[in-house]
Design a protein that fits this description.
about 325 residues; alpha/beta; Rossmann fold; Helicase, Ruva Protein, domain 3; 5-stranded parallel beta sheet; 14 helices; 13 strands
Length: about 325
Amino acid sequence: MSETVNIRELNDLIASKSDFLNVIRSGMNQRIVGQKHLVDSLLIALLCNGHVLLEGVPGLAKTLAIKTLSQLVDAKYNRIQFTPDLLPADVIGTMIYSVKKEAFEVKKGPVFANFILADEINRAPAKVQSALLEAMQERQVTIGDETFQLDRPFLVMATQNPIEQEGTYPLPEAQTDRFLLKVIIGYPTLEEEKQIIRQNIRGALPPVQPVVDSREVLEIQKLVQQIYIDEKIENYIVDIVFATRDPRKYRLSDLQDIISYGASPRASISLAVASRAYAFLRGRGYVIPEDVRAVCHDVMRHRIGLTYEAEANNITADEVVTRVIDTVPVP
């Protein structure tokens, strides 16, 4: 009974914080036409204190969406354009010699901000990509002998173009695993495209003013951590992840030769926290199976390895995830 009362109180508390979502969504809608899934995914990453990787062809408002979200939150924002000649020091900073002080001093790089746009992250070599690893995972950066804590919230929002692979450096599994979500962006509908044309031929896009600050974001992140996950939901999440590791046990024997490696424990954690954030977006203080299913593709698609046989037959990770969530019993 006490659990029921707590959930009811949590629902009321979440309802009282609905303005947080309303003002951000309203601000996003001023500039972004359609792309509801993209906006929700960015909000989930923000609420979970995670990172998001956006993949889509050029011109789908990936950069605009990320920039708009960062402008709506009154926090520091930096954009890093990844190029083949970029160096790790261009991202995290370096030691420079000060003639005036006759000593080396730290010059911090653009990673020292609350929101980082890593634009076309697969255009920079592995050494530069790995420079982000410590920052993304540990929320800290080491320059020389000193370690610096990054400000909270800290959100890396990376984009990559899937169609031009010549001269690019695919992200290694160790790096993609650190992104809470990998979101695939599709084309707008015909009506949305008409609206996009009208909006852009009118001239400059409407200015965006900050509507929340960093303190409010941190408060909401703490609230999301309180959302209730029943043990049955925990079992459901674990079953989904384990089905990618041992398909035969879950009556998915045909996937045995398609999956080279299954999702890691980080996938289980990410499914749980992303499901909580999705429940918050729906105004609930508890997670239901539909929340898990809603975020499953974005959480899992970059955490499953496919065999050469799967690639030869044009089988994608999304198809594997769909088979898994369609087969694993729903509590």
